[in-house]
Amino acid sequence: MLDQQLVNALSLGCVYALFALGFTLIFGVLGVINLAHGAVFMTGAYAAMTVMARFELPLWAGLLFAFAFCGLLGLLIDFLVLRPLRARNAPHLIPMIATIGVAIVLNSAAQGLFGAENQRFPEGAISNDTLQWAGVRITVLELGIILFSFVLMAVLMLALKRTQLGRALRAMAESPKAAYLLGINVEGLFYLTSFAAAALGGVAGVLIGLYSNAMSPLMGQPMLHKGIAVVILGGMGDIRGAMFGGLFLGFAEVLSINYLGSTMRDAVTFGLLFLVLLVRPKGLFGTLQERKV
Amino acid sequence: MRQNFLKSALLAFAATAAFSGAAAAAGTIKVGVAAALTGGAAQYGAAIRNGFELAASEINAGGGINGNKIELVVADEQSKKEEVINVFKRLIFQDKVIMIFGPTLSNSAQASNPVAQAAKTVVFGTSNTADGITAIGDYVFRNSVTEADVLPETIRVAVKNSGIKKVAVFYGNDDVFTKSGYDNFKKALEDLKMPVTTTETFAKGDVDFKAQLTKIKASGADAVVLSALIAEGAPIMVQARQIGLNVPFIGGNGMNSVKIFDLAKGASDNLYVGSPWSASNATPENTKFIKAYTAKYGNAPDQFAAQAYDALHIAAQALKNVKMTGDIGAERAALRNALPDVKWTGATGAFQFRRAHDKAGKPAGFDAQQTPIVSVTKGSVFVIIK
Known about the structure:
The complex is a heterodimer. By secondary structure, chain A is mostly helical. Chain A has helices at about 1-30, 35-55, 60-85, 95-115, 140-160, 165-175, 175-180, 185-210, 220-235, 240-260, 265-280, and strands at about 130-135, 135-140. Chain A has a single domain, classed as Orthogonal Bundle (ABC transporter involved in vitamin B12 uptake, BtuC), CATH 1.10.3470. Chain A has 11 helices and 2 strands; from the N terminus they run H-H-H-H-E-E-H-H-H-H-H-H-H. A two-stranded antiparallel sheet of chain A has the order 1-2. In chain A, strand 1 (about 130-135) and strand 2 (about 135-140) form a beta hairpin. Chain A is globular and about 60 Å long. The termini of chain A are far apart. Chain B is α/β, with parallel strands linked by helices. Chain B folds into 2 domains: about 1-145 and about 285-370, Rossmann fold (3-Layer(aba) Sandwich); about 145-275, Rossmann fold (3-Layer(aba) Sandwich), CATH 3.40.50.2300. Chain B has helices at about 1-25, 40-60, 80-95, 105-120, 145-160, 175-190, 210-220, 230-240, 260-265, 285-295, 305-320, 330-340; strands at about 30-35, 70-75, 100, 120-125, 140, 165-170, 195-200, 225, 250, 270-275, 345, 350-355, 365-370, 375-380, 380-385. In chain B, strands 7-6-8-9-10-14-15 form a 7-stranded mixed sheet, with helices on both faces. In chain B, a hairpin with a 2-residue loop joins strand 11 (about 345) and strand 12. The interface of A and B includes residues 8, 118 and 214 of A.
C-alpha cells in the first residue's frame, strides 16, 4: 500500500506545483500576489473544454488554445488593472485587492456563460489507460502532469538563471527603477511575465481540470488556497520553492491520511507548514532580502 | 406645457398602477418561489425553478385553480442565509404571496422558515432534507424525503443485492449536507450492525482522492458508503476504478443525479442510490413529467426538479379548497388547514404528509410519507431494484 501512496503523493504534489509555478512567477517579477490566478486557471480549463468540444480538437490543441487565451487574458489584466496601479506607485496591498475583483468578474462570467453545473472534457480527451507496475497503478495523465511540472520547473529556472532575459527579469525583481536606468524595457517585461504566468495557469487548469474532470466556475478557489500555502512554504517568488513546496504539501497530505486518518489531513499539513515557517520565515528557498536603512 | 406633461405622466402612472392592481386581483393566485439561482447551490436552484414553472404551466393550461391562474413570483435567494430572510420578507409583505416554496438549502431554511411561521404563511420545502426543519412550526411543510428515511433502505437493499459483509465510509466533512448524510449513514450502519473497516473524509474542491481510496482498498471493504455531492463523488468513483477498487458504492442523496453518467463515464457502474424519485420509474405520471420537462428545457430532469414539480401539484390540490376572498390572511390560514389532507400521486409516486414533532415532542410541521426507490447504475441508466 505504501508504494501506491508514494506514487499518489508524487502526483498530487506535482498537481500543486504545476499551479504554484505560474503563481510564484508573477510574484517573483511583479511583486504582486495575484489572487486572480485561480480564476485564470479556471478560465483555461473552460476555454480548452469549449474549443475541444465545439471543434472536436485533440488535447494538444486544447492546451495550446488555453495557453494563448489565458496569456492574452493575463496581458489584458496587466494592461487594465496592474499597469495603472504601477503607474501610480500604489502600495503592495492595492494590486492584490484589485486582483480579487478580477477573480470575481471571471468567476461570474464563467457562471453566466456555462452555468454552475459541473462540466467535463469531451470523452476521449485523454487516454483512460492505467499503467501497472508491481501492483502500483498510475494513469497516463498523472505521468504527464509529473513530467510536465518537472520540465517546466527546469525550463523556468534555466531561463531565469542563464539567459539575458532572465537576468533582466531578476534585475527588475530587485528594483524596477534601477533596471529602467540600465536600459531594460521594464514595462515590456512586465507584460511578458503577466502573459507567461497566466498562460501557464491556463495550461495547469486544463491538466488539473482533466484530473478530476468535474469542473465548476469556482474550481480555482480551493486550488488558489493550496497554491498560496505552497509558495509561502517554498519561498515567495522562487521557482524551485514552488516545486518543492508543492511536493511537500502533496506528501504531507497523503502520508497524514495514510498514517493518521483523513480527518487529520489539513491539521497535520498546515501544522507542518507552520513549523517550517517558524524555523525559516522566508520559506524553504526564500531569499527575500531585508531592507537596510 | 410642463404642467400638462406632468399631469399626463401622473395619469399614466396611476392608470398602470390601477391596471396592474386589477390584473393581480382578477383571477391570479400569487405563489412565491425562493430558489438559489446563483451561488453555491445554483445548479439545484435552476432545476427547482424549472420544475415549478413546468407544473404552473400545466395547471394554468388545464384551466387553473377554479378558474384562477397561478402566478409564480420567483426570487433568487443566492444560496445565502442572510439573503433568504430578505427574500421571504419581500414575498410575504410586499408581493403578498399566498405561500412560499423553498428555500433550496436546509441551512437557509433554518434561518428563513421562522419568518414565514411568524407571519402565518405556509412555507413548503422541496429540497430541505436536514433534521429539524419541520420542527420550526405548524406552517412548515416539505415533500423532500429526508435522508434519515432513505439511507437505511438504500443500505438494506444494497447489502441484500450484493452480499456485502463490511463497508468503508467516505464523506465530505466540511459541508453540512454531506456531513448530515454521514450521520444518517452511521446511524443506519449501527442499526444494521454492519462492520465499518475505515472512515475517511475529504474536503470540498479536492481533486485527488487516491490516498483515501488506496487506504479503503487496503482495508478490504466490500462496499464504499459515500456521502458526497456529484462534484466530488464523480471523480471519487473514477479514481477508485483507476486504483483497482472495484467494489459497489452506496451513495447519499447528493449522488442521485444523471450527471454521474456524464462525469464518471466508464466508471459509473455499481452505484446504489435511494430516493423518492428515479428517472427509470416508468409510472404514467413520471413518464409524462420526464417527457414534458425534456421537451421544455432540452435536458433531463433530476430529483430536485421532480420534487418541485410535485410540490406545486400538491399545493394546487389544497388551493382548490381555499376560498379566494381577497383577504390574504384568511386565504393563507385556509391553505394551511387544507394542505395536510392532500394525497397525490405524481412523478415521485404516492405521496401524503406525516405530522412532524418538535424537540419537546409537540406536533409541529409536516414531513413527507413516501417509500424510497433504490436503484443501481448500470451502463447509463439507474436500474430499479425491486
